[in-house]
Amino acid sequence: MLTLFISIRFFDILDVLLTAFLLYQLYMLIRGTVAINIFIGIFLVYLMWLIVKAFNMELLSSILGQFIGVGVIALIIVFQEELRRALLMIGTKYFSNSKFSFSRLLPNIVQDQHNLKVRSIVKACRAMSISKTGALMVIEKRTKLSSLIQLKDVIDATTSSRLIVSIFNKTSPLHDGAIVIRGEKILAARCVLPLTEKELPPEFGLRHRAGIGISEKSDAMVVIVSEETGNISVIKSGNLNTKLDYSELTEILEQEFISN
User: Is the CATH number 1.10.240.10 carried by domain 118-257?
Assistant: First the structure.
């Protein structure tokens, strides 16, 4: 009589659940980018290696084994932007947003970023939304943006609604590009941002692509006013929240930048 004994430990179940969770998070991270096709290709090669290894096909197994052996280095090279974004998201979450974050343990090292002039930004967005004036505003948080974007024209002026509207006026020489806001000041204008590789719907143009791009590479928050529709959008960590009204924009900015 043949008896089968299957022993399943608690840690076996935990192992499966954690693996599934990590794979899901990886998929969400690279979904909509060209990296998803590369990931599928690598997964198929790994699956083929497991099959030929199970059938004891020594030659093909050794060739694919060599490929898998250097796979970690290849993954780091291919997915460097996605890994950067994931580590940035993890670091940001546990550096400032958690009850037990490092910012609470090291208060003297962390600079206060809660002096954003929210009312001035919302007032400017209201005026530009009505007149359908396109605008792209990058609000810096803890990641310094100087190494990620080109600061064309340094302004270093206190943020005001009139100044923002003047910069993005279609006749202004500074309207092309983004402004960077650091704390209570507009740091620079006419800034060039990196573009995202995500596939976006046709109604989103270069401003939205640039806004998503910089939010993927930093913890900055981006506010966009569409020139075509006048819609107001906010982008954080690559996630686009569009068609916001003025109260929703105010609430989002206050939650991010105003101390409780």
Answer: no
